[in-house]
């Protein structure tokens, strides 16, 4: 790389002086003194070992070498200006890496992501699934969508932790299983496998039963354990099982008639939803667009 490129300001000043054929007019354009323009041109000519201007009256005319350099700087600055104009018109263009649970990513986000892409084809979304509280910086995550009652406590202070509503958890089963629950009482449920999601979920059967004063369900009840909600949904869609599932992850199946709420008794714990991201991120505007889209989708679906 030529040493002149270490000081691009010299080339910018040269271009202005060559364009106006005047150091004083170049100085007015660049808001510097005429002496500064003259000094920079002497410096540039010294670095190049070429004379670029000759004085004729009050004008500064280009030499042959100056003409060559003027054509080059004109083209280069024009390309830069067009590129910067394009960037300013498309501040959202680029990628976003989103992290969330396997269930939310697979069941809620992925089936709707094409709607976001239609609105913002300039934003490329990358999805990562994780049940834990990953380090956003270390994992190069731009936005995490997290759930639970301890999200704020586990979020570092330098990150924004934005609450965007709660979900309600109900016992959910297939419509065929619902027909078998003739009296729709908890005693009828004991003839069906109860799905337990995770080993330490705050939305477990025992707390649900205690809250509604249901003695038939206890620690001694036999459960089928799965690691995520998407596995629980697969189980209840294909068997006579019953699982405690948050509303927005089973809403589509309920609307289609495949699933139903087994008992209209909600779990006492709500599923709190949060967006977590770095407030200083250079992708802040892009992140806000995605956040507003997710929020609007959830609001629209809740109102249907």
Structure description:
This protein is 46% helix and 22% strand. A 5-stranded mixed β-sheet has the order 4-3-5-12-6. The protein has a 5-stranded mixed β-sheet with strand order 9-8-10-7-11. α5 links the parallel β3 (94-100) and β4 (123-129). It is rod-shaped. The chain has helices at residues 8-20, 23-30, 34-48, 64-89, 102-119, 151-154, 175-180, 186-189, 205-211, 229-237, 247-256, 284-303; strands at residues 53-56, 59-62, 94-100, 123-129, 143-147, 159-167, 169-174, 194-197, 223-226, 242-246, 259-261, 271-278. The mean pLDDT is 87. It is an alpha/beta fold and 304 residues long.
Q: If you average the pLDDT, what whole number results?
A: 87
* Helix amount: 40-55%
* Binned strand content: 15-25%
Low-confidence stretches: none
Widest sheet, order of strands: 4-3-5-12-6
Structural class: alpha/beta
Helical run tally:
12
Please sum up the structure shown:
By secondary structure, the protein is of the alpha/beta class. It contains 12 helices and 12 strands.
């Amino acid at each position: 790389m030529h040493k002149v490129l270490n000081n691009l300001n010299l080339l910018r000043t040269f271009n202005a002086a060559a364009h106006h054929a005047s150091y004083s007019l170049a100085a007015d354009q660049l808001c510097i003194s005429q002496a500064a323009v003259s000094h920079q041109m002497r410096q540039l000519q010294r670095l190049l070992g070429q004379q670029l201007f000759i004085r004729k009256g009050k004008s500064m005319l280009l030499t042959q070498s100056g003409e060559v350099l003027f054509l080059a700087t004109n083209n280069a600055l024009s390309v830069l200006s067009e590129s910067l104009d394009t960037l300013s018109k498309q501040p959202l263009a680029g990628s976003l890496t989103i992290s969330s649970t396997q269930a939310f990513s697979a069941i809620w986000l992925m089936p709707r992501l094409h709607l976001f892409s239609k609105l913002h084809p300039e934003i490329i979304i990358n999805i990562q699934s994780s049940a834990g509280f990953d380090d956003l910086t270390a994992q190069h995550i731009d936005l995490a969508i997290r759930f639970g009652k301890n999200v704020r406590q586990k979020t570092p202070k330098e990150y924004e932790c934005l609450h965007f509503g709660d979900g309600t958890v109900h016992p959910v089963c297939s419509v065929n299983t619902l027909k078998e629950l003739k009296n729709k009482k908890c005693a009828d449920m004991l003839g069906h496998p109860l799905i337990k999601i995770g080993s330490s979920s705050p939305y477990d059967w025992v707390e649900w039963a205690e809250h509604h004063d249901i003695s038939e369900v206890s620690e001694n009840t036999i459960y089928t354990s799965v690691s995520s909600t998407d596995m629980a949904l697969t189980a209840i869609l294909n068997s006579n099982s019953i699982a405690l599932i948050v509303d927005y992850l089973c809403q589509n199946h309920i609307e289609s008639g495949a699933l139903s709420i087994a008992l209209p008794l909600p779990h006492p714990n709500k599923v709190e939803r949060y967006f977590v991201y770095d407030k200083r991120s250079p992708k802040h505007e892009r992140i806000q667009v995605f956040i507003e889209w997710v929020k609007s989708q959830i609001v629209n679906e809740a109102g249907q």
